[in-house]
Amino acid sequence: MPPSQSRLQSIDALRGLVMLFMLLDHVRETFFLHRQVSDPMDALTIAPELFFTRLLSALCAPVFIFLTGLSAWLYSQKHSRADTSLFLLKRGVFLVMLELTLVNLAWNGTLLPQTLWLQVIWCIGVCMIVLAAALHLPRAAVLVIGTVIVGGHNVLDALVLPPDSPWFAPWAILHQRDFIDLGITRARTTYPVLPWIGVILLGWGIGPWFAQTRGARRRLALLTGWGLGLLAAFVALRLLNGYGDQPWVATGDAVRTTMSFLSARKYPPSLMFLLPTLGMCLVLLALLERYQARRWVPVLALFGAAPMFFYLLHLYVLKALYLLAVAGWGLNQGQYFGFDQVSGVWLCSLVLALLLYAPTRWFAALKQRRRDIVWLKYF
């Protein structure tokens, strides 16, 4: 396969891989709610099998948002900066509206719930809107801003505003995970956007690594070197135990100590959350490009070629399955229906991935075949 195609397939394949991790996590959130997971995870009390199942999903949001920035740069190579900026603005607004409507309906079963959860789709939309403006800056400036945000935003953790502050709502959207009173309902800023803005800017900043003029060997060296460097930086800073997240503890148990070392805050993502996940993102990109001839890579790429379709489809399928399970077997876990073991989450995820493959392949083919239908590219 020509390098220009393999570099794009590696992006879709990585996106597809984390889509499957996301499916696993959403099955957990649907059928394992009787065993809630805190943020950050409590390594001293959570079952190891549940900890590491949840840990896989840590890759999802960083990879989605980082690849959104990278994909925006690739889009800009075929369009003017003005056209790219306008596309990002329109798609960002579209994603925000999608979160408030179809995504919200899938999670809550109503368009006007008691709490409106502002989650990852909303966050990606806001990040795209910001990138629509930031891409007009020099690439070096975008990289510097992204690095400063990702590396330095934990300095702001101590700044907590009360609800009566005039700056409370903007700050809750940016960095302070909180509830915003909207009168008829309230909004929960599950994904405060400031750190994620840094991530999308870094994704845009590495775009030239994927230029058609860039040799595959050099790109693989950059991806591998920077990926391993970020992972090494995580280990070094985490050992210092002084910045970027809550301290880890040596428990005397190797597994629990490792869990404590790896546990990091996601809402908003701490530096100790972003360093290893972005490092793994780069390493996985390199591996998927290096081994793109393997049969399973195009399968992953297919899931990544229609991400929004797969996202909406799996949410509604999970909602329907949960309602059917409650109707058939009742609430077997207190106020929830759920599986007894984490293995049930994995088995259900595997079955759903197989069942959802065909409709996702159909929609991905439709996108390729009907490029004249403008709205398809938003999915």
Account of the protein in words:
- The relative contact order is 0.16.
- A hairpin with a 4-residue loop joins β2 (179-181) and β3 (186-188).
- It is globular, with a radius of gyration of 21 Å.
- It is an all-alpha fold.
- The two termini are 26 Å apart.
- Helix content is 65%, strand content 2%.
| Percent in helix | 55-70%
Distance between the termini: 26 Å
Compute the number of strand runs: 3
Radius of gyration: 21 Å
Oligomer class? single chain
Most strands sheet: 3 strands, mixed
Structural class category: mainly alpha
Unreliable parts: none
Strand content: under 5%
Strand neighbour order, sheet with most strands: 1-3-2
Tally of alpha and pi helices:
14
Mean pLDDT: 93
Note the run of SSEs as H and E: HHHHEHHHEEHHHHHHH
Mass-distribution shape? globular
Compute the number of structural domains. Answer: 1
